[in-house]
């Protein structure tokens, strides 16, 4: 402090601002201690504890000591913290009581009265002790008396507000201790004042912000208030807290702009909607732009002024925090957001003005960062600044196009006027950059001065941006700048320079599958190729664009017409062909063979039907569509018959082709799925939600560079095959979408034909599909005539007429009328001739051609079969019956096989062990008209029966037992069986003892089910017994008795069932017997349900179910029953109404209500039961067992084993 008694200098808003402390009293005394005080005060840090739970911080206190004046004290409503005195100090070294009473006390009283008048309670009285003055005055009181008087007069309850500083100018331990105590007190009081006044200021500021919805609230006024707080934090070197204040102002203003765009606008925003008249860019070279701050304070700032000033303050604080790269990131976000905010607020901006502002701002930020970082830091952090370089390049390009600096003829008068207006809006260059040779202002002014200067600056910026993007791996951004360069060169009529950039960008987009950039780049490339005269490349690109669905219909038609126009011109030399890939012109979808097996004989006709999807937007007249075919002959191909070839072909003859790869990489479809997760960022202070969004965790896999991969664009070097075998179709019009084209060919030479290449010609332009995949082939065969004989059954049975199928495959032979098959007759096998035998004629595709009557003539030695006429490569099928006679029985032995001949027989007999049938082979020789050699076939017959006899004796009688066993799978009925005496003996009489077999009438089936929810039956648990009684036949003669009843619809008979268990394994619960009325009809079924309880564990046999015929009491046969046919009388006792009560569901049991009537009807005729003869009832459950588990509570386990 040079002149503490002089006038207060004007306030300068720089980082030199410090908290104000006023000094009253002895100014000369303060001047003497000021150097030591200003040096010692910031040396020790103090812990600053703040309100609202904010973390404490260690700060170094500095102060700006000024002379006390009443004008410095804040007035009511003054919110300026920078001019606010935080502490007031009164300095005195009075050591004389008289002097104290005469002058010092009155001066102190006035000083305190002024402070009280302004409600200032932050003060301190410093009494300086000086030993030199003490020695000069001998009549003075001790120093403590003066201090005590001051404390009594002014400090009352705040005695600590008066401190003693002993000999401050000496270098002694006592002096140092005094200084330490004084500095500690001074720092404490300053911190207390900061905390109190800042807290009050923040509360007032918060109250003001909460009134923002009220009419008349001004953002600019609030801006100045919160900036005061930011200035204080900056003054205290708390740059992070100061930055938070500006960030809050930024966010608040941005939210109001967004709400304005949504229709909810604040009145004060109209101040920022005034037209833009100045666009001189950001100003970052001084801490505070006072000019723009005053505009904000006067509410005259435009949107760009506010944003520029706000960002300049943020930039200053970030640089103090040594975060220059965040400056670049925030600057890029600011520039983009300002462009959008101007649109939302509908601010009037002259054309090109915003481009100038963005360009100047980008370069200003870059130069500001370069000024505080060395070259090594800049090179290692290119990723943070390359966005600004790219944005500046883009805006300079826009300005060049706007001002006519890119046109071939240069700018016109209108362009020059526009350039002058833009330069005028920049204003004069600022003083801080006037001496800088490469300032943003000079660069822009120079770039807009001439065509050559613009080209130099634009190319320098573009190449620098591309190099930086490439160095950090941002290939896509580099290619995007390259596209802009290509567009620039195209406007400059230099297509040869533009092609390189376009090809590079297209390769990159194709590798990564960016559909719209691919389309846009191809359009630019087509224009470039057209200017360069690259006919083939231009036609290929035009075909790709004509099939591109991302273009409008008119654009697609234009490029298609370009191809057709070239095809119709005769500028190409005769015979010269331009071969292009077919992928963009048309796509092969499927192919269908007729016949479907893709197998045809020599001379046959094969048709190939293909479906082509035209990609063109208009119908295209194609002169010729051809399929080149490769012919090959395999080894042993003569062995491949039509049947063999057919088995190895697709059944339907349709081959589907995969969708042609789009102009985008197929690898894009195989990329991993997006791994998206929610992201929340919370404030570290109060844990409130700060940011939310979505983050992709596998972005490194999705956005990998694929520069090294092969280009997925269609290669231009497509070769057109010219072979001897070609399928052609001429003059075809391909409509947009699916088209069906049919090729027909006549097979000439046997072999395998592979479809290799598909081509379509439009004038001299040929579209070629170089490889047809998957592999498509058809086969041509030449087949020898064949005869195949097979039985229709699995095995031929001897003694029974059996059918045999004859199949004649004509092959290349044509069967004529009169051709016949000559069969040599076997000794014991006959061919049976029937007049109705017919032969069917089929084509090789099994389509019926015709049928004809088959003539069979047989003699002793030969059987002749006349074949109907049939063309080549057809089949003749017919069936004949053959009969193999069984051999005579063996002359002796206990056991023999029916039909086995003597050992001297000619045929080979085979008799296998067990129950296998004996077989006999008959060989037949067949002479065919197409061969001089005979065909020998062997038919094997099996003997179906085996017989066995035995001689039995009983006293003087002899019994002959004959057993006949059926070994085949067929059912035979044995009838009229008898033994014949071949010796013609008169004394031998054979009497048959076989009675007439009974037919099975009823099928009885029992089934036991475990309780509901259980898997097995358990002892002591009730189980369900279901009895099913099924009638197997209709009305027979044996049914006509007294039990038969006739109704209007059907006959019925009465049966009685009884469930008994002689082995005592089951306890039948409830009804165990009953009478039912069974309809006499096939498959009529009656079911009975009852409950049984297993008494033992193990595999138990099912209870027996007995069935009886229930006869009325007047039956004449009832008295003839034996004892085994009766059951207890009490179960049969019925009253006179029993016949009326019995129906299909009536079930009566022992102990039923009808049994009670037995005592009342004694002596009356009772109904009787008649046992059914053996064979009439089949019990399907006989021998069946069911698993019963022991109960868990049983301690003794009894298991029944049967």
List keywords for this structure.
seven-stranded mixed sheet; single chain; elongated; alpha+beta; 1202 residues
Short structural summary:
Residues 1140-1166 are annotated as: Disordered. One of its GO terms (cellular component) is TRAPPII protein complex. The protein has 1202 residues and is an alpha+beta fold.
Query: Taking Cα atoms only, what radius of gyration do you get, to the nearest Å?
Result: 59 Å
Shape: elongated
Tell me the number of strands. Answer: 49
Tell me about the largest β-sheet: 7 strands, mixed
- Uncertain segments of ≥5 residues (pLDDT<50)? 1-15, 663-669, 706-716, 889-914, 1115-1163
What would you say this structure looks like, in words?
This is Trafficking protein particle complex subunit 10. Residues 1140-1166 are annotated as: Disordered. One of its GO terms (biological process) is Golgi vesicle transport. The protein has 1202 residues and is α+β, with helices and mostly antiparallel strands. Helices cover 30% and strands 26% of the residues. It contains 24 helices and 49 strands. The strands form eleven sheets. Strands 8, 10, 12, 16, 18, 19 and 20 form a seven-stranded mixed beta sheet that branches. Strands 22, 24, 28, 29, 32, 33 and 34 form a seven-stranded mixed beta sheet that branches. Helix 2 runs parallel beside helix 4 (143-155). The longest helix is centred in the N-terminal third of the chain and has 38 residues, at 173-210. The chain is elongated and about 190 Å long. The termini are far apart. The relative contact order is 0.04. Residues 1-15, 663-669, 706-716, 889-914 and 1115-1163 have low confidence and may be disordered.
